[in-house]
Every structure is written in C-alpha cells, then in structure tokens.
Amino acid sequence: MSNLSMSKRTAYDIKITIETNYIPEQSLPEQCRYVFAYTITIANIGTAPARLLRRHWIITDANNKVQEVHGDGVVGQQPHLLPGEVYQYTSGAILETPIGCMHGNYDMLADDGVEFEAIIPLFSLTMPRALH
Q1: Would you tell me how many other CB atoms lie within 10 Å of the CB of residue 44?
Q2: Does the residue 22 lie in any domain?
Q3: 71 within 8 A of 104, measured Cβ to Cβ
Q4: Distance CA 69, CA 55 (A)
Q5: Residue at 84 is within a domain
Q6: What is the C-alpha separation between 97 and 63, in angstroms, rounded?
C-alpha cells in the first residue's frame, strides 16, 4: 500500500460516541410515547479539518417502524472541526415503543474539498427496566 493511500485513510477520520437517556417527564407510556435524549460527541481524529454538512438518521422502534431523518447540520449548526477538536450536542427522539435503536451518518466536507461520510454506529434507546 502506498503512503498516499495510508495518509488518505487517516486524513478523514471522525470518531462518534453516543450517550442516551430516557426522559420520563416527557413520555406518556399509556399513549405509546417514549421520549429519549441522546448526546453525540464528534471528534476529528484525522489530519484534515472538516465541516459537518448533513445528517441522516435511521430510527427503528420495537415494532420495526422506521423513521428516516435527513437534514442540514445538527441542532441548527454545521460545526467545523480542526484535527483534534471535539463537538458535542444533545438532541432527542420519540418512539412508540419503550425500546428502539438509531444509526446513520454525517456527510462531512474536508477543507481540501473532499466529501466523506462519518458513520454513526448503531445504538439503543431503552426505557429503564424495559428489558428486565
């Protein structure tokens, strides 16, 4: 493998971590409304500065109902991350079941004009004691 392809692979590298919380005060289980908050941490661990342009979410509840969400940026922003920088935000999802999951991707644009995807790994949304 050439040095160029090795450096290309590490230039565009975004690490995404997720924390989730069930929000009981906004949920109405008797009406099949379960509200979850999720905090996303986006870290630019590559060598190229990059801007988050768009998001794409796939949200699935326990009944296999799928919602897809597309949009510009996150929480009204399109953060620009220099190498080593971290951006964190909190948003939410409403499900009809006490258990579900989400995953997706961010479309990123590096300062050198290269567009790439940052994969958002699958994570679960679970009301406490919903599983056991």
Answers
A1: 25
A2: yes
A3: no
A4: 8
A5: yes
A6: 7
Token pair belonging to 6: 């090795």
Q: Which residues pair with 15 in a beta bridge?
A: 43
The number of beta carbons lying within 10 Å of the beta carbon of residue 88 is: 12
Q: What is the pLDDT of residues 46-83, one digit of tens each?
A: 999 999 999 999 999 999 999 999 999 999 999 999 99
Is residue 51 included in any domain, yes or no? yes
Q: Which residue is it, tokens 């499900």? A: 95
pLDDT at 11: 92
The amino acid at 16: I
CATH classification of the domain holding 106: 2.60.40.1470
Rounded Cα distance, 45 and 86, in Å: 9
| Number of domains within the chain | 1
Structural domain boundaries enclosing 98: 3-126
What are phi and psi for residue 76, nearest 5 degrees?
75, 10
β-bridge pairing 99-110 and 66-72: unpaired
What is the per-residue pLDDT across 81-117, written as a single tens digit (0 to 9) for each? 999 999 999 999 999 999 999 999 999 999 999 999 9
CA-based nearest residue to 39, from 81, 84, 102: 102
Specify the amino acid at residue 84. Answer: G
